[in-house]
Design a protein that fits this description.
The chain is of the alpha+beta class and about 900 residues long. Helix content is about 40%, strand content about 20%. The protein binds (3S)-3,7-diaminoheptanoic acid and zinc ion.
């Protein structure tokens, strides 16, 4: 039946497509408008006749009325850029249907029906990488959040759970491997074609559907669960990549074990597959039983992957695996609840990585990510609560706020409850909501009940955006230490007059003489201001506050440099020690780059910093990974965040000057540390990783004081490197220095790794991130390089995301950096809207810049907004950024 445009049923419930619909103003979806879907879809049968250019999809949906929803005479099936080939209801004609915008609306008169829909799609033309697409000759899918509607018409919303049975067929030679969610139930051949049938017994929303077909090989292993279920594990990659999958497989097994031990969660199928693809919009995707990964988070060996890459793989493999419970078994009712699965799963992957490696260092890294990405988001035009109230394009809400602040909010509950009670809370959550599409409120209530906490006021963390500021004053009265705390939550777009939130702060009071404290305490500031008294102290103690970064807030206090030097040398909380070191440097750099520092104060500040760093270098009680953290300078972005109307040029100069000062004052010490580190042979031990971290860090200091010498040292490190961490570190330093070593290393690196996409990505990124004065010219030339393509998100990110994060290039006083990123957004938008929209926030920071740069950034946003045709993704981000 050709039904492409049969007349619509007259139906009051159908919103007619508006002829005057302006594609530039997509509708706003609001959380308060949620209503349950009128239909249940207990079973979905899909048949795929696979081809790279033409795939035919037959979907048979068994539908029945949802007793919990209002009765509707129709069912709305979402579509996006797909053509309907045919439609049947109960194997005959439907009572009526219409195409409404992108959706298909079918009239259903009875209580139970079968709807059969045939669509045809061209995966090879799908450059958005959403739905079914082709990647280097294979077929794969990405459905979260709304990609399934690019495959077939379906109620593409997370609260419609269905049991999927899938049959796929295709040419044997082209697609020898056919994968889907769940278990493979049958396979067969028919001449050159073969087929496989898969069944997933666990009801799931459409965003968790996945299919992969291609010429792949697997590393196979197995895991026996706590109740004796034998699970087959496969990591599928392209031939030739197999020997780089060991770390991924080991990470998967560790994740499975850890989730049993720490959260009591057991895997629930006999098979768990991971597939690595090279064209992917993000890191990875937790499809039930068939995780699809960006190759970046699967492939590793010492020659091609850095220590950071190894850690990233372990973290992301863990994250996707943990979603099996926090996301798949319990999913989200609607996309406003995204943090229900993402915030919780980020917390779970952070705790996992803490347990697998150095917990203090992992905590510092996580806080750095939060401050580098989420704090700026929370103080800018795109600020939103971890549970947003509205959106136009949900892909724009996979943010650091939903993910990382979401994790911090749950971590605060854990801190207040204690580990044991928190576990009772999560058990309650899993028991209560298994098999459901739940809300953030369901989660909070479960923790409240299970852990025995009153979270009434705490719920404000879900509804209020903005990073709270906590003002801290410590005084000494009689023999008491008196701690006065007050909080403000800044205004954010659409939100003013915020209410105080409960802020759990871990503190310790150090006696100056003994250098010890009498125990850590947890104070919860839940009012606008409050006073806490501690005794007994003969003299004013030194306050260590927000230990372990117990709350995602900004601490404001007047603390003398000597107290920071004291804490940086001996605080027994690693995070607080790191924080003291950072505060010392940030305080100095903020004053220096805003011009409020006298020469005498500059000298004292620098001396304090050097004194504290020297103590860190000489401290034998800490390991080198931690030493590396303590010796790291605060990022330029973090410094800029502390300043109104920041001038990136001045911050850059001051930061480089301080680096140079440190390098020359501590020359001997750093040299000795480098020599010591160089002696350790390559291994994945914490000791060896720490040594590698120090080596490159020391080179970055050296580069600021004696570039010629640093170039020689880095060239030497490059040539001798037997692993990617050392080689990349050396090349990173070299890219910023005009020298013969730079040219040689760049040529060597390219020739050595030509054809290895992930390593060539590094080659692009290192040049785009460099401190070289001609970085803009370099990026322009790289955009014309034969290996550059706008079609591959990893490659686009490696050149342009690296550049947009390089204050030295992006914020060039000429405005050329801004222009370059705006041009990129415009060129990329029609190809891959999701990736294009991710570049908008960098320009959205215009309000925080000094007037000249601010005007240029805004002008670029306006130029983008005037483009004749913008995707929903980019349109929303640009409009919000202009404010
Ligand atoms: N849930 C996916 C993210 C999907 C993003 C869609 N734009 C990966 C993750 O967070 O685990
Ligand atoms: Zn996730």
């Amino acid at each position: 039946m050709d039904i492409a445009r049969t007349p619509a049923t007259p139906d009051g419930n159908i919103e007619m497509a508006d002829a005057a619909f302006e594609p530039k103003a997509p509708p706003e979806i609001r959380r308060e408008d949620y209503t349950p879907f009128p239909w249940l879809v207990p079973a979905t049968h899909l048949t795929f006749e696979l081809g790279l250019e033409k795939t035919r999809v037959t979907a048979r949906l068994e539908v029945e009325r949802n007793p919990a929803a209002e009765v509707s005479p129709t069912i709305r099936l979402n579509g996006d850029a797909i053509e309907l080939v045919s439609l049947k209801c109960d194997d005959g004609e439907c009572a009526g249907h219409m195409i409404d915008g992108d959706d298909l609306v079918v009239t259903l008169e009875g209580d139970k029906h079968t709807i059969e829909i045939v669509t045809e799609i061209d995966p090879s033309a799908n450059s958005q990488l959403m739905g079914l697409y082709a990647s280097s000759g294979m077929l794969c899918t990405q459905c979260e959040a709304e990609g399934f509607r690019r495959i077939t018409f379906f109620p593409d919303r997370p609260d419609v759970l269905s049991t999927y049975t899938v049959r796929m067929s295709g040419p044997k030679d082209q697609f020898p491997i056919l994968l889907c969610n769940g278990n493979r139930v049958e396979t067969g051949e028919d001449g050159d074609t073969h087929w496989a049938e898969w069944h997933d017994p666990w009801p799931k929303p459409s965003y968790l559907f996945a299919l992969v077909a291609g010429d792949l090989v697997a590393r196979t292993d197995s895991f026996t669960t706590m109740n004796g279920r034998e699970v087959e594990l496969n990591v599928y990659v392209r031939e030739g990549d197999l020997d780089r999958t060991e770390h991924a497989m080991e990470s998967l097994k560790r994740s499975m074990k850890w989730d049993e031990e720490v959260f009591g969660r057991e895997y629930d199928l006999d098979l768990f597959n991971i597939v690595a693809v090279s064209d992917f919009n993000m890191g990875a995707m937790e499809n039930k039983g068939l995780n699809v990964f960006n190759t970046k988070y699967v492939l590793a060996d010492p020659e091609t992957a850095t220590d950071g890459d190894y850690d990233g793989i372990e973290g992301v493999i863990g994250h996707e695996y943990f979603h099996n419970w926090s996301g798949n078994r319990i999913t989200c009712r609607d996309w406003f609840q995204l943090s229900l699965k993402e915030g919780f799963t980020v917390l779970r992957d952070q705790l996992f990585s803490q347990d697998m490696g150095s917990a203090p260092v992992k905590r510092i890294e996580d806080v750095r990510v939060l401050r580098g990405a989420q704090f700026p988001e929370d103080s800018g035009p795109l600020a939103h609560p971890i549970r947003p109230d509205s959106y136009r394009e949900i892909s724009n809400f996979y943010t650091a706020t939903v993910y990382n602040k979401g994790a911090e909010v749950i971590r605060m509950m854990r801190t207040m409850a204690g580990e044991e009670a928190f576990r009772k809370g999560t058990d309650t959550y899993f028991d209560r909501h298994d098999g459901e599409a739940a809300t953030c409120e369901d989660f909070v209530k479960s923790i409240e009940d299970g852990a025995g906490l009153d979270l009434t006021q705490f719920r404000r963390w879900y509804s209020q955006a903005g990073t709270p500021r906590v003002r801290v004053d410590l005084s000494h009265e009689g023999d008491e230490a008196v701690l006065k705390l007050s909080q403000t939550v800044p205004d954010t777009p659409g939100q003013t007059d915020k209410q105080p939130m409960p802020i759990p702060l871990k503190i310790a009071l150090f006696d100056r003489e003994s250098g010890k404290h009498s125990g850590e305490e947890l104070v919860v500031l839940d009012k606008e201001s409050d006073t806490f008294r501690f005794g007994s102290f003969a003299s004013k103690p030194v306050l260590s506050i927000n230990r372990g970064f117990s709350a995602p807030v900004t601490i404001q206090r007047d603390i003398p440099g000597e107290d920071l030097v004291f804490l940086a040398a001996r605080d027994d909380d690693s995070f607080a020690r790191y924080e003291a070191m950072q505060d010392l440097m940030v305080g100095h750099l903020v004053s220096a780059s805003t011009g409020v520092l006298s020469d005498a104060d500059r000298e004292t500040g620098r001396r304090d910093i050097v004194r504290a760093l020297k103590a860190v270098i000489e401290d034998e009680a800490i390991d080198d990974l931690m030493r590396g953290e303590l010796l790291s300078m605060p990022s330029q972005t973090y410094i800029a965040e502390q300043i109104e109307a920041a001038d990136p040029g001045r911050i850059f100069d001051e930061r480089e000057a301080l680096k140079g000062f440190i390098a020359s004052e501590l020359k001997e010490e750093l040299h000795r540390l480098y020599d010591r580190s160089e002696k350790l042979p390559y291994s994945q031990s914490a000791e060896a990783k720490g040594a590698r971290k120090l080596k490159t860090l020391i080179l970055t200091y050296a580069a600021a004081s004696d570039p010629a010498k640093a170039s020689e040292l880095a060239g030497h490190q490059y040539d001798r490197a037997d692993n990617m961490t050392d080689r990349q570190g050396a090349l990173m330093v070299l890219t910023g220095i005009d020298s013969i070593e730079r040219t040689n290393a760049l040529i060597d690196f390219y020739n050595r790794y030509e054809g290895n996409a992930l390593v060539i990505d590094k080659w692009f990124a290192l040049q785009a991130m460099s401190l070289h004065p001609q970085v803009i010219e370099h990026v322009k030339a790289l955009a014309d390089h034969q290996d550059f393509t706008m079609k591959n998100p990893n490659r686009v990110r490696s050149l342009y995301m690296a550049f947009a994060g390089n204050p030295h290039g992006f914020h060039a006083a000429s405005g050329e950096g801004y222009r370059m990123i705006a041009d990129l957004i415009l060129a990329l938008d029609p190809i891959n809207a999701q990736t294009a929209a991710r570049f908008v926030p960098s320009l959205g920071k215009w309000r925080k810049m000094e007037p000249g740069r601010s005007a240029m950034m805004r002008a670029e946003l306006e130029r983008i907004s005037k483009a004749p045709k913008l995707s929903r993704d980019t349109f929303e981000q640009v409009t919000r950024s202009l404010g």
